């Protein structure tokens, strides 16, 4: 331990605290978001040239990128209604972002969080509906129902993710493709189950009965659950030997096997864990956001990929990226209502963010050209 | 071992077909026969049609992956092709009469823009003269194709064909972006491929909303079918193969051509070497970077044809809800070429298998039988999963997924 506190050693200490590569990753993520948002603005402006409107609002364009930015990033913070939608979206993205992060950390591309969320949510809804008449009304009954429903969601999501995990481990089936195929299967199976056996009587859309009022909870509670999950995942990945094995298997399978990790079981275990988090996310969607399971589940699983990639698959990063995309999701409704700009714009930005995060070299070169930073290699 | 599995699977398919035929002949009155009768020439013709987008994605994917760039974004390229075709066709029909000239101009502008970007990236060689000749040659070829189209077809069909060309060019442009990102900026190929998919998945419904106010487009005319004289009179085969969509003919041409190019030409040799041992190729004086660009652009070209054939060739509409009308065909295409072990002929066969299940699914829904449609719909997807498990680990090209640095600069 160095005893003289010279500025030099302070810098060294700081350097050790702020892991250099983590700092660089953060810089890349911020740059990626800025670049995507700017490019999204260009996309908005250009598509506004093709849209039809009475009077163009921004030069020749029907869409004003500046108001789009305002509604995407700032307006959700201004009213309590949109704040609650933002909290709702953020908490869901914490769940799906963490689900993706766990699998990516293990070196597995689980693109099937969407399907795991769809089936997990359905399991939660059915459990809650079934338990409703059995348990007493009131807070305690509600809490029990919610807990059991969340567990059911996690179990179903986990088991559904274990399928591609086992196929990967024991049959070498590419998990990207199997999980995407299972997304389609999940949507179809859920549709079949609900429309055939669990349809809400008298409803025009395909949906289950409402879950008991007492079992539902507010976005704030969901947000707290998300925070606890972030802490738990961080601890699991960096504080336990299971997490160590998981990360090692993701970085270097051979090394992990050499160290005595059963790589095949690790693949299944990490996919199951990832799916369980995704399934729990589905339960939260049902219990907090909708109050029942209904077809046309929003693409929370796909947004989770963006959140995780933007966060360098780090749970603490998810804590930053989740609210960012939660705000944008909430804002996307207002750009549709207030400005007439299709809310799918957020989908475009989602893809752009991943593209930019995937190419750190691009920003490194830009930085070198502008003479910023010393990250030139 | 893997070859055995593949052979066993093919044999199993054959046995099922033979048994089915036997049942139909021996027990014409049984209920099973009724199911087997689904397989008639109409069914096979629709299976061939449905295989077009899948097979084109697969053929493109083979070129990219063989060259060392795993293009997992095929699904996105299909979406872009499908959407652009319908959007341009709708635009050309916006006025009183179908506008052909703006379409011609649009095609030429797109080609010119692409060529200029390629020249800027240094992919058309060095020296003003060389670049000039290539850009001029490219434009001249386009003028020839477009001129032929306008002369041979009426205004409405010309407009549809021109939209088809623009769709293919947009897919090529997106694949160029993907190539640039992975080759110039060393992006992780899987993540960048996912990004291409997600961008298309967001952008196509967004643009549909801008143009039509909903994620689905209005209807546009489809490409007229082609009937080959004489050959179309051949029983069964004639109806299935020679009285069909133009894109089916393109596929029948592209499949053996891809096989020939990959196996028998020096370009094909470069593509394979660039994926297996880029260093050796570099030492031999071939520019790995250019080969990889070319291979990825071919995947964009083929996927563009596949996507446009889906919307302009078959459906006459773009559907952008959910996973869009492409509905995983790009991913199925990847499975098809893995199953076909990177052989274009094998990939075509695998695409045909998946497409025939899709056709079966559609047919079963039409016939009813009390089967729930939402479960029947899962047949192709589950088959893809089973096939992936059967195929197991494929021997991917040695240097696939890795960035290659020639170390020159």
Give a brief description.
Chain A is mostly helical and 377 residues long. Chain A has helices spanning 7-17, 20-50, 65-74, 80-105, 113-131, 139-171, 175-196, 219-239, 241-251, 253-258, 263-290, 300-310, 315-339, 345-357, 360-369. The longest helix of chain B is centred in the middle third of the chain and has 29 residues, at 155-183.
Give structural notes.
The complex is a heterodimer of chains A (377) and B (409). With 377 residues, chain A is mainly α. Chain A is built from 15 helices and no strands. The longest helix of chain A is centred in the middle third of the chain and has 33 residues, at 139-171. Chain B is mainly α. Chain B has 17 helices and two strands. Chain B has helices at 2-26, 31-36, 41-66, 74-92, 101-120, 128-152, 155-183, 189-212, 237-241, 246-264, 266-276, 278-283, 288-315, 329-339, 344-367, 373-376, 379-391; strands at residues 226-227, 243-244. In chain B, helix 15 packs antiparallel against helix 17 (379-391). At the A-B interface, helix 2, helix 7, helix 12, helix 14 and helix 15 of A face helix 8, helix 14 and helix 17 of B.
Shape of chain A: globular
Could you give the order of strands across the largest sheet of chain B? 1-2
Proportion of residues in helical segments of chain B: over 70%
Low-confidence stretches of chain B: none
The CATH architecture of the domain at 38-78 and 188-391 in chain B would be Orthogonal Bundle
Q: How much helical structure, as a percent, in the residues of chain A?
A: over 70%
Give the biggest beta sheet of chain A: none
CATH topology of the largest domain in chain A: ABC transporter involved in vitamin B12 uptake, BtuC
The CATH level-2 architecture of the largest domain in chain A is identified as Orthogonal Bundle
Overall pLDDT confidence of chain B? 90
Structural class of chain B: mainly alpha
Instruction: Return Rg of chain B in Å.
Output: 22 Å
Oligomeric status of the shown chains? Answer: heterodimer
User: Tally of extended strands of chain B?
Assistant: 2
Number of strands of chain A: 0
User: Order of helices and strands of chain A, N to C?
Assistant: HHHHHHHHHHHHHHH
CATH class of the domain at 38-78 and 188-391 in chain B: Mainly Alpha
Largest interface: A-B, 50 and 50 residues
Provide the low-confidence segments of chain A as ranges.
Answer: 1-6, 13-18
CATH class of the largest domain in chain A: Mainly Alpha
């Amino acid at each position: 331990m160095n005893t003289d506190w010279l500025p030099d050693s302070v810098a060294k200490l700081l350097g050790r605290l702020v892991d250099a590569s983590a700092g660089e990753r953060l810089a890349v993520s911020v740059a990626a978001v800025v670049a995507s948002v700017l490019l999204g603005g260009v996309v908005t402006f250009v598509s506004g040239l093709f849209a039809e409107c009475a009077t163009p609002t921004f030069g020749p364009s029907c869409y004003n990128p500046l108001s789009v930015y305002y509604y995407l990033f700032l307006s959700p913070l201004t009213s309590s209604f949109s704040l609650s939608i933002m909290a709702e979206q953020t908490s869901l993205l914490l769940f799906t972002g963490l689900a993706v992060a766990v699998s990516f950390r293990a070196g597995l591309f689980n693109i099937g969080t969407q399907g795991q969320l769809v089936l997990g949510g359905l399991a939660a809804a059915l459990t809650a509906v079934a338990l409703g008449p059995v348990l007493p009304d009131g807070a305690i009954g509600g809490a029990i129902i919610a807990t059991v429903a969340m567990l059911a969601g996690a179990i179903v999501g986990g088991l559904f993710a274990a399928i591609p995990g086992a196929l990967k481990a024991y049959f070498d089936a590419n998990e990207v493709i199997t999980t995407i195929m299972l997304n389609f299967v999940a949507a179809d199976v859920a549709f079949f189950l609900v429309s055939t056996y669990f349809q809400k009587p008298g409803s025009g859309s395909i949906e289950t009965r409402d879950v008991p009022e007492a079992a539902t909870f507010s976005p704030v509670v969901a947000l707290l659950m998300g925070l606890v999950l972030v802490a738990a995942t961080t601890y699991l990945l960096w504080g336990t030997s299971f997490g160590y094995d998981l990360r090692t298997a993701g970085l270097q399978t051979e090394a992990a096997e050499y160290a005595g990790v059963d790589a095949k079981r690790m693949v299944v275990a990490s996919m199951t864990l990832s799916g369980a988090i995704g399934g729990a996310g589905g339960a939260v969607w049902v219990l907090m956001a909708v109050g029942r399971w209904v077809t046309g589940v929003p693409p929370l699983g796909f947004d989770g990929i963006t959140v995780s990639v933007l966060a360098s698959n780090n749970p603490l990063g998810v804590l930053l990226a989740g609210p960012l995309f939660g705000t944008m999701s909430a804002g996307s409704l207002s750009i549709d209502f207030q400005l007439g700009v299709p809310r799918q714009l957020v989908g475009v930005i989602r893809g752009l963010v991943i593209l930019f995060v995937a190419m750190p070299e691009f920003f490194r070169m830009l930085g070198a050209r502008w003479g910023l930073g010393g990250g030139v290699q | 071992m893997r070859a055995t599995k593949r052979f066993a699977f093919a044999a199993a398919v054959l046995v099922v077909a033979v048994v089915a035929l036997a049942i139909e002949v021996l027990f014409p009155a049984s209920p099973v026969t009724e199911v087997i009768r689904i397989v008639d020439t109409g069914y096979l013709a629709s299976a061939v049609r449905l295989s077009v987008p899948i097979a084109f994605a697969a053929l493109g994917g083979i070129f990219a992956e063989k060259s060392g760039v795993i293009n997992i974004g095929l699904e996105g390229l299909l979406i872009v092709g499908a959407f652009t075709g319908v959007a341009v066709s709708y635009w050309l029909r916006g006025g009183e009469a179908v506008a052909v000239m703006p379409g011609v101009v649009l095609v030429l502008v797109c080609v010119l823009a692409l060529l200029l970007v390629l020249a800027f990236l240094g992919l058309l060689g060095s020296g003003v003269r060389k670049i000039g000749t290539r850009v001029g040659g490219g434009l001249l070829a386009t003028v020839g194709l477009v001129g032929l189209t306008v002369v041979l077809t009426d205004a409405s069909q010309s407009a549809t064909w021109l939209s088809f060309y623009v769709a293919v060019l947009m897919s090529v442009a997106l694949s160029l972006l993907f190539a640039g990102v992975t080759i110039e900026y060393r992006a992780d190929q899987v993540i960048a491929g996912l990004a291409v998919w997600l961008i298309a998945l967001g952008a196509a419904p967004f643009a549909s909303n801008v143009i039509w106010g909903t994620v689905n487009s209005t209807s546009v005319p489809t490409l007229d079918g082609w009937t080959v004289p004489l050959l179309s009179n051949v029983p069964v085969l004639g109806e299935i193969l020679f009285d069909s969509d133009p894109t089916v003919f393109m596929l029948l041409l592209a499949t053996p051509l891809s096989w020939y190019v990959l196996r028998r030409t020096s370009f094909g040799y470069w593509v394979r070497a660039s994926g297996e041992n880029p260093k050796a190729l570099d030492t031999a004086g071939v520019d790995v970077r250019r080969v990889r660009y070319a291979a990825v652009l071919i995947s964009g070209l083929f996927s563009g044809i596949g996507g446009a054939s889906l919307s302009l060739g078959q459906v006459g509409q773009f559907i952008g809800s959910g996973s869009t009308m492409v509905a995983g065909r790009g991913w199925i295409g990847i499975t098809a070429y893995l199953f076909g072990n990177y052989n274009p002929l094998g990939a075509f066969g695998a695409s045909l298998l998946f497409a025939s299940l899709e056709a079966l699914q559609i047919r079963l829904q039409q016939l009813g039988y009390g089967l729930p449609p939402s479960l029947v719909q899962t047949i192709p997807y589950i088959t893809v999963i089973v096939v992936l498990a059967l195929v197991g680990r494929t021997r991917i090209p040695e240097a696939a997924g890795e960035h290659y640095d020639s170390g020159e600069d």
